[in-house]
Amino acid sequence: MGEHASIHADTRTAVDLLQWPASPLATHYGTADTQASEMAAAAAFIERLAYPACLVDATGIVTGLNAAWRGFAPLAVEAATQQWAQLIHPADRYEAFSHLHALCVRRQSTSLECRLANRHGLPDWFLLQLQSFNTPSASVFYLCTCTDIRHLKRTEVELRRRASMQADMLDISVDCIKLIALDGTLVHMNKAGCRALGVPEDSSFGMPWLALLPEDVRARGERELEQARAGKFGRFPGRSVLPGGKTQYWDNMLTPVLSADGSPSAILCVSREVTLEKEALGALQASEQRLAIAARIGGLGIWDYDVVQQTWQCDEAWHGIMGLDALRPVRFLDQFRPLIHPDDLEAADDYLRALTESTSEAGEHVLIFRIVRPDGEGRWLRSAAHVQHENARVVRVVGFIVDITDAWRNETALRNANRALELEKSSLERRCLEDPLTGLPNRRLLNSAIEHLCMHAAEARTPFCIGMVDIDHFKALNDRYGHLYGDAALSAIASAMQSVMRQSDFIARYGGEEFAFVLADGGEPQQVLDRLFEAVDALAIVHADSPNGHVTISCGCLVVRSANKVAPEDILRMSDCALYAAKTSGRHRYVIQTFG
């Protein structure tokens, strides 16, 4: 602005010197009475000017062109027919002619920036000043002086180029970048910011920035904006919602732009979209909540061991199982080891060593061990863990513990009961529970076994099978061959049943010519029954009154899917009904029925 003011001042000085009769030229030419002499005097004056200048008459004809102009543009011809507009670059002629016309009409000085062709025929920028003046002979002429502004224009073009490059660089960024004045109004915003806030990209800006954000984040934004005004970094979470669009979440970072004296002159705001991160964090939190609920319901205590830092992080349930206060959390192994039962300490050390030296993330590592709580109570725990690797090294182990004391005690009691049962078999008391002929358990022991099996199956929800076996036409066998023959047949069939049954199965003599068996995991008893019938047929016990000529059997089998609210005697009754179905169907066969 100051440079243009000085240019205009120089031009006014030149014009003032040409005013008749006030100027010094009036003395020299004041007696001249012809227009030619007046123009000669004016031409002689502009010849002394160091910058390009020319005289133009009312018709737009150049009547004088000084040496500075001719030296700048040798192609410019000083002639009576030379139009002033032809000295102007074609792209600027219309505007230049408009200024000359306005000067002719209003007689007020005017100026414009335009291009003139130089000695190489290339355009250079000048500031043209047009001024009208009157001669003593009442003729009207116009003075055109030119000031070189090529440097200014180059600087302006360079500044615009740099500003354009900076704007282009900002527009490339996916982050929303804003320049904010200290009063909170927008000075500039890149394309990403305009799209996020619904502002036209060709906007002149100037609107308050916070007013473009949802109302519930403005108060926090104003506080952080005040921080930036004070020269401090500010940061706050925000969001933007365009009509019909998806909510976007942003991390807004405010950095003060400092002037030369160190005071803030503006605020740079970079808003990075964190929508995906927020959604992922929300999903993770929901997953953690579900895990926490599942762990709480299942009685699980979660533990997390940082192998590199050798630190533990355990949840509240873990501390509760250990009998510890979660407000004084366990952080290191040395705080946990004293709780491990001395007899299980070596196994626990081996377990942890195997975890930290594991070469595979696949599989679950399990340990059952005992602890002694601070109050002296002993508990049985089951620990399962999963390892995580980084660069082929174990860096983290995550697992859970569950208190299995009650289940362990029940299992121990069951093992002891089974052991007692085995001892009972070898005792005198056992003799009253056995069939003296076949050595098999009798009906009383069968009822007890079925009752125990029903309780276990109801808890484990596993199917089992009860079968009843009857020797076909046994009365006719006794009548023809005698009771000793019949007893021998009973003993042989009992042995055949024992040969095909597993150790986990149970066989008893139910009474007379009937046997009963229990398959603990007998969801599919067909294979066992087929082997049983093959074994009995292989005995080939002669029975002339049997349609097959030898002793055969019939079997009724009941597969119990659910033993809830059913008595052992009801199961035996349903099994006997299946046996009856086999006998009425022609004997020498088995019938399988299902319950539950």
Task: Give an account of the 3D structure.
The protein is built from 19 helices and 20 strands. The chain has 4 domains: 2-154, PAS domain (Beta-Lactamase); 173-273, 2-Layer Sandwich (Beta-Lactamase); 280-403, PAS domain (Beta-Lactamase); 434-595, 2-Layer Sandwich (Alpha-Beta Plaits). It starts with a helix and ends with a strand. Strand 1 and strand 2 (62-65) form a beta hairpin. A 5-stranded antiparallel β-sheet has the order 2-1-5-4-3, sandwiched between helices. Strands 7-6-10-9-8 form a 5-stranded antiparallel β-sheet, sandwiched between helices. The chain has helices at residues 2-17, 25-29, 35-47, 67-72, 93-106, 150-172, 191-197, 215-229, 275-298, 316-322, 333-336, 345-356, 405-425, 428-431, 443-460, 474-481, 483-500, 526-539, 568-584; strands at residues 53-57, 62-65, 110-117, 123-134, 140-148, 176-180, 186-189, 234-240, 248-258, 264-273, 300-306, 311-314, 365-372, 378-390, 393-403, 464-471, 506-511, 514-519, 553-560, 590-595. The chain is an alpha+beta fold. The chain is rod-shaped. Mean pLDDT is 82; it is low at 1-32. Helix 16 (474-481) packs across helix 17.
